[in-house]
Design brief:
The protein is α/β, with parallel strands linked by helices. It contains 19 helices and 25 strands. A six-stranded antiparallel sheet has the order 4-5-8-9-13-14. Strands 17-16-18-19-20 form a five-stranded parallel sheet, with helices on both faces. The protein has a five-stranded parallel sheet with strand order 22-21-23-24-25. Helix 3 packs across helix 4. The radius of gyration is 26 Å and the shape is globular. The two termini are 27 Å apart. The model has no long low-confidence stretch (mean pLDDT 94). Bound molecules: fructose -6-phosphate (F6R).
Length: 621
């Protein structure tokens, strides 16, 4: 249950476990958050067993009901299965199983696999505990050897019948200490303990118990017992064990006295930015990115950068675009990962694709990376989760050191992503000779002042929180920004939508008079991100935009620099941020918007960390 709690960020509309004791499986499920399953287990009483599988669900096929919750079982109840991902040929398989007389109690694609596995298990005619090309399954007690072998062979055959992405974990009543697992395009890692082993879709699930972990490769089959792990490769051969470095100290995954993870993570931003910036210079002051295993000659031939990401990570990409184009004079496109590959994008060996992802497991982004690499592009991943699928599938990885982000709404990952993509931009400028070393040092010096300035913004949070509490009854909030303030407006609006369930839209301030201004009526709340007055051509225009909405009755909340008094006349409330270079302003301006959304949602009594309908990692397309 502790492991499931750590994975709850992946989905929390229902949950369930199966526990295997001698000759019997007990399955307990509950709709809603994990706490409901805990209560349900309390009524069942203590369960004993030698192995268990568990799942928290984010509904794809069928509503969040107890029947649709995992584990799913075979008709005889002897076999239990949990599944992440989507089985794309589930409809066809369902039809053929129905024709064979199988009945279904759920609407899920997972139950199809449970029946398929049971069918293959019963049809297994071999003896013994070998699988693949005679690979012997280790650590299985003699009385369970036949069952474990049959289950592993059944899983092997089932895999070849499935299309789509999946991680599957199964157990059988007659082999209660054995878990058989398989993965294709969905994550699965193994944790190695002493007389205990673990499987998780993220190492976080078992980081409390062990930090020794093994990767499971694409299409590999795994048999885990308390004392042994057997991995079988795609061709049925024994697979080489690949160890994973896990560096998450598990005490970093607690609220540390904060009421919510989101508040804690907003307040961790100074450290997240500083850690992402740390140790990037060599003795001579050159920016070094050892982890960027792409030779400088290749980076010098790059003629286009495409940033691919989703949601908040894509907004970080939009911010990065302004900086990379300015510093490196290379065209930068920013594309939502799920749109990218269906657009037939122009990508070749001279394209540098930058994939930005907190989790490193977003399926849309993974698919876009694969598409880009097939076309010959080099892919640099900017990820927060070491060892994640995206980091493994990219040519190079630039880690954001934000630490685990647990709240569903992304905050510290966003500012760390901007920081990391800026480092990448400066590195490209250095390698390609667009900037001299002293210029780059100057940019980095100014960037290193940002953590202190973010701390300053956080100290001023009370005005933001007070303002938020007065707006709990709003139905709509508009965000405006220009230049790098535009993606900040989009991000501010997304935060409010996802945790406070208030309709919010971010617009480019210049776009206002091309349509959105029609939305402004008496009392409409508009939040405007004002650029520094040291960029008068930008500043002047945004101040005019504030006047335009104000003239039409809007209630204006303005994010502006200290000392910028020109906004006072048109702003109902001003959230102040310390002066900073234009390109770095998003790292400060977004902070009050995060605090605002968090406080407003809290004041509405909502679950800030786990908003409805969402999951932290979107592991299906
Ligand atoms: C919003 C949010 C999402 C993610 C998006 C990408 O607060 O968290 O929009 O940014 O789902 O996720 P990652 O970065 O894990 O690829």
């Amino acid at each position: 249950m502790g492991g499931l709690a750590r994975l709850e960020y992946r989905g929390y509309d229902s949950a369930g476990i199966a526990v295997g004791a001698t000759q019997s499986l007990t399955v307990v499920k509950a709709v809603g958050k994990l706490a409901n399953l805990t209560s349900e287990l309390d009524t069942v009483g203590p369960l004993e067993g030698r192995a268990a599988i568990g799942h928290t669900r984010w509904a794809t096929h069928g509503q969040p009901t107890t029947a649709n919750a995992h584990p799913h079982t075979s008709l005889d109840g002897d076999l239990a299965l949990v599944h992440n991902g989507i089985i794309e040929n589930a409809t066809q398989l369902h039809a053929s199983l129905l024709a064979e007389g199988y009945t279904f109690v759920s609407d899920t694609d997972t139950e199809v696999v449970a029946h398929l596995l049971a069918r293959e298990f019963l049809a297994d005619s071999e003896d013994g505990d070998t699988v693949g090309h005679g690979v012997e399954i280790e650590g299985v007690p003699e009385d369970a050897a036949g069952t474990a072998g049959a289950l592993a062979r059944a899983m092997n055959r089932v895999m070849s019948q499935l299309d789509g992405a999946f991680t599957l974990l199964a157990m059988h009543a007659e082999a209660p200490g054995v878990i058989v697992a398989a993965r294709r395009s969905s994550p699965l890692v193994i944790g190695l303990g002493k007389n205990e082993n673990f499987l998780g879709s993220d190492a976080l699930a078992f980081s409390e118990h062990t930090q020794r972990a093994l990767e499971v490769g694409q299409d590999e089959l795994v048999v885990v017992t308390p004392t042994a792990v057997t991995i079988i490769g795609v061709e049925g051969e024994p697979a080489t064990k690949k160890f994973l470095e896990i560096d998450f100290a598990h005490d970093r995954v607690t609220k540390d006295g904060w009421p919510t993870f989101m508040e804690k993570e907003i307040n961790e931003q100074p450290r997240a930015i500083a850690d992402t910036l740390a140790d990037r210079l060599d003795a001579e002051g050159y920016l070094t990115l050892d982890e960027l295993r792409i030779p400088s000659e290749v980076l010098r031939t790059v003629d286009k950068v495409i940033i691919i990401a989703c949601g908040t990570a894509a907004y970080a990409g939009h911010v990065a675009r302004y900086a990379i184009e300015h510093w490196c004079r290379i065209p930068v496109e920013v594309e939502l990962a799920h749109e990218f590959r269906y657009r037939d994008p122009v990508v070749n060996e001279k394209t540098l694709v930058v994939a930005v992802s907190q989790s490193g497991e977003t399926m849309d982004t993974i698919m876009a990376i694969r598409h880009a690499r097939e076309q010959g592009a080099r892919v640099v991943a900017v990820v927060n989760t070491p060892g994640s699928t995206i980091s493994r599938e990219s040519d190079a990885v630039l880690l954001t050191h934000a630490g685990p982000e647990i709240a569903v709404a992304s905050t510290k990952a966003f500012t760390a992503q901007i920081t990391a993509t800026y480092i990448l931009g400066l590195y490209l400028a250095q390698v390609r000779g667009n900037k001299y070393i002293d210029e780059i040092q100057d940019y980095l010096d100014k960037l290193s002042e940002i953590p202190g300035k973010v701390s300053e913004v956080l100290k001023r949070g009370e005005l933001v929180r007070m303002t938020a509490r007065t707006l709990v009854d709003e139905n709509s909030v508009i965000y405006l920004g220009r230049h790098v303030g535009f993606p900040v407006a989009l991000e501010g609006a997304l935060k409010l939508k996802e945790i406070a369930y208030i309709h919010a839209e971010g617009f480019a301030a210049g776009e206002l008079k091309h349509g959105p201004i029609a939305l402004i009526e008496e009392g409409q709340v508009v939040i405007i991100i004002v650029p520094t007055p040291r960029r008068p051509e930008l500043h002047r225009k945004v101040v005019s935009n504030i006047q335009e909405v104000r003239a039409r009755g809007a209630r204006t909340i303005v994010v502006a620099e200290d000392g910028d008094e020109s906004v006072n006349e048109f702003a109902e409330t001003v959230f102040r941020v310390p002066p900073t270079p234009t390109l770095y302003a998003p790292l400060l301006a977004v902070v009050p918007l995060q605090v605002f959304a968090c406080e407003l949602a809290t004041a509405k009594g909502l679950d800030v960390d786990q908003p409805r309908n969402l999951a932290k990692s979107v592991t299906v397309e």
